[in-house]
Design goal:
Order of helices and strands: HHEEHHHHEEHHHHHHHHEEH
Number of helices: 15
Mean pLDDT: 84
Low-confidence stretches: 19-40
Strand content: 5-15%
Largest sheet: 2 strands, antiparallel
Strand order of the largest sheet: 1-2
Number of strands: 6
Shape: globular
Length: 395
């Protein structure tokens, strides 16, 4: 079945692409680009090829072995997400302390690099989505960018060994301290940003691709489990890596190689978990991404190119206008996230100046970030078991 499914996709995709290009002249698949009674033969060809591919995909999904009603690949996808989130948050949690206390950056400089990294992590998902939907599909996008991600983790861990890459050496009270070269962390951070951002739009939707359309209830529970795995990995990493960086190793009073090395190890586990279920995955071929088409319509609207707008069709132009009206609702969100992400930068600097002891327990300045995933883990079951069913009952 897997062979037939792959063979059909390979055979149909060139036909699909040709019909797609002919039907919309670079626009969306379903655009009625000539509302004045033009010929829709090519669009019908697109629809027929899509139907053939979707039918074979459905047959493939039905043939997959299931565990407790779920596709057998789902535990591997969720495990992959747990390990990847551990890797990301583990590295990110100790990053501000590393930049200021190990690389000796000023607070302002460290904050700038920290937020440049975060911004890049949430910009590259656009690139990952385009690569997956237009070129190579979700599976290969996740695999390739996960390896890029892993390279970034390795660079962070290895270049944090100051004795190997020393920018300066100092000795105080008989203890030698090495300041690593700055190029290593900056290279590692950009590789990680490309990797984690690139796979972000792909992993959850790739898991969704494994379900039949009739499995909406299981699909909803899958997304809840997926979100639970994200915050489980984040909580474990946020608590553990500050403990690791506080240890002494390699003759120094801190151990950032271990604090970065453990997240790198978890990224290895993430790749292994993902690849292990390769033969069980339903791999939907790339069938286009609306970002390009929305951009083209928007560009034509801004420049008031009436001829192009007529080619796109009235319905499609109206849909894009409605999209931009909806996006206006999200204008305040950047202000929220600008404040939210201060917990990993300025809040850590402030916490580092405060007394973190609560009785006999000492909370490290970078460990305070654990509160967020901890609350999420507590609230997910409550919302799934109480809030959502109650709202559904109310209607």
């Amino acid at each position: 079945m897997s062979h037939n499914y792959t063979k059909l996709c390979d055979e149909k995709m060139p036909e699909f692409n040709n019909a797609y290009e002919d039907s919309n002249n670079g626009g969306l698949i379903d655009q009625d680009y000539l509302n004045n009674g033009a010929d829709f033969e090519n669009e019908n060809a697109v629809s027929r090829v899509e139907d053939d591919i979707n039918e074979e995909i459905t047959v493939k999904k039905q043939s997959i072995y299931r565990v407790l009603g779920y596709p057998i690949s789902i535990p591997f996808i969720i495990s992959n997400e747990f390990c990847e989130r551990f890797s990301y948050y583990g590295m990110r949690t100790v990053l501000m302390i590393y930049l200021t206390e190990k690389l000796m950056m000023s607070t302002d400089e460290a904050t700038t690099w920290y937020h440049e990294f975060i911004a890049l992590c949430y910009t590259t998902p656009l690139l990952g989505a385009l690569i997956a939907d237009v070129r190579i599909g979700k599976f290969l996008t996740i695999l390739i960018l996960s390896l890029v991600y892993l390279c970034g983790n390795a660079v962070m861990a290895l270049t944090s060994i100051g004795a190997w890459f020393p920018a300066s050496v100092s000795t105080e009270s008989g203890v030698t301290s090495y300041q690593p070269m700055v190029w290593g962390p900056l290279l590692g951070l950009h590789l990680i940003a490309l990797g984690t951002g690139g796979i972000k739009p792909c992993v959850s939707s790739f898991g969704g691709d494994q379900f039949l359309k009739s499995e909406s209830a299981r699909l909803q529970r899958y997304f809840s489990m997926f979100y639970f795995s994200i915050n489980s990995g984040a909580m474990a990493a946020t608590f553990l890596t500050p403990e690791l960086r506080s240890m002494s190793c390699m003759g120094e009073t801190t151990c950032f190689p271990l604090a970065f090395g453990v997240p790198a190890l978890f990224m290895v586990l993430a790749v292994i978990a993902f690849v292990s279920a390769s033969s069980w995955y339903v791999k939907v071929p790339p069938m286009g991404n609306p970002i390009i088409d929305v951009t083209r319509v928007t560009w034509a609207m801004v420049l008031k190119k009436e001829t192009q707008l007529k080619d796109f069709g009235k319905n499609k132009v109206d849909e894009v206008r409605q999209l931009w009206r909806v996006l206006a609702v999200f204008i305040p969100l950047p202000f929220f996230w600008a404040i939210y992400d201060q917990q990993g930068s300025r809040w850590v600097v402030q916490a580092n100046r405060m007394n973190g002891k609560i009785g006999d327990i000492e909370i490290k300045p970078d460990q305070m970030q654990v509160v967020n995933p901890l609350l999420v883990l507590c609230l997910i079951p409550f919302f799934d078991a109480v809030v959502y069913p109650l709202f559904k009952k109310i209607g």
